[in-house]
Amino acid sequence: MTPALEVRDLTVVYRDAPALDRATLAVPAGTLAAIVGPNGAGKSTLLKAVQDLVPRVNGEVRVFGVPYRQARLRVGYVPQRTAVDWDFPTDVLDVVLMGTYGRLGWLRRPGRAERETALSALELVGMRDLAHRQIGQLSGGQQQRVFLARALAQQAELYLMDEPFAGVDAATERAIVDVLRGLRAAGKTVVCVHHDLESVPDYFDWVALLNVRVIASGWVSEVFTPDRLAETYGGRLGLLTRIGMA
Ligand code: ADP
Ligand code: MG
Fold first, then answer.
1. Three-state DSSP class for 161?
2. Helix (H/G/I), strand (E/B), else coil: 189
3. What distance in Å separates the CA atoms of residue 118 and residue 112, rounded to the nearest whole number?
4. pLDDT tens digits for range 12-68
5. What is the spatial distance between Cα 7 and Cα 45, in angstroms, rounded to a whole number?
6. In this structure, which residue's CA is closest to atom 21 in ligand 1?
7. Residue 14, ligand 1, Cβ within 6 A
8. 230: which residues sit within 8 A by CB, 6+ positions away?
9. For residue 42, which ligand has an atom nearest its CA?
């Protein structure tokens, strides 16, 4: 089967040192996939480079077997929440409606159908009641849900999410997990940058261990091992002890 996302020899250099060094991986379609690795490992860079948001020195990206440019509308992106200006004066529904713009094309404005799509997406993340709240007045968990709803409204097939669980409360974490599982049940593919190693086996099917290079990638049951984690995190074994793997 054609992978949902295929990255070959992807290299990104910001100034002089590579943030990503010949990263190669193939995420099977219909899976929940995690990208894990220490701070500065190039995880966010990988998600951005896949979408041509940062220039790559080298490498090839295919989404469902075709170059990203041809599959752009099939890819939904949830950026890292902290990378966004939440003081921008707009309400929740408008942000979620943005998810429908790609399909609308130029000249058409969102109408009733798009509004319904956006409201259903908000319902799915438990935020429908807050549709007219200014985004600056939301909690961190609510902001994350809005981002998720915007991606859902896009009706993509591959979702790229940068730390969707960062800084959210337990209720939001459960709500997000439910949404991710629903996406998988609908045959979608989700690739998340994820920082909590402990929950990887519970939440994800597939994992890539990244530290500038891809240390390993594959099914969690095969790849998520103490040796590979030690290699990825530079042998900081305290961490592995904490999660009961060493
Ligand atoms: P991660 O998401 O794994 O924490 P990033 O992909 O954000 O890592 O960053 C990887 C490396 O590239 C880090 O050393 C970071 O400082 C650097 N970096 C990220 N973005 C930029 C940028 N726009 N300009 C220069 N360096 C950057
Ligand atoms: Mg990051």
1. strand
2. strand
3. 10
4. 999 888 999 999 999 999 999 999 999 999 999 999 999 999 988 899 999 999 999
5. 13
6. 14
7. yes
8. 236, 237, 240, 246
9. 1
Q: Which two tokens stand for residue 191?
A: 């690739």
Mutate to test the pocket of ligand 1, among 13, 14, 20, 56 (most ligand atoms within 8 A of CB): 14
- Adjacency order of strands within the sheet including 189-193: 75-78, 158-162, 189-193, 32-36, 206-211, 213-219
Question: Measured in angstroms, how far is the CA atom of residue 129 from the centroid of ligand 2?
Answer: 31
Angle between helices 140-153 and 170-185 (to 10 degrees): 10
pTM passes above 0.85:
yes
27 lines ligand 1 (CB under 6 A): no
pLDDT digits (tens, 9 = 90+) for 214-240: 999 999 999 999 999 999 998 665 655
Distance CA 25, CA 217 (A): 7
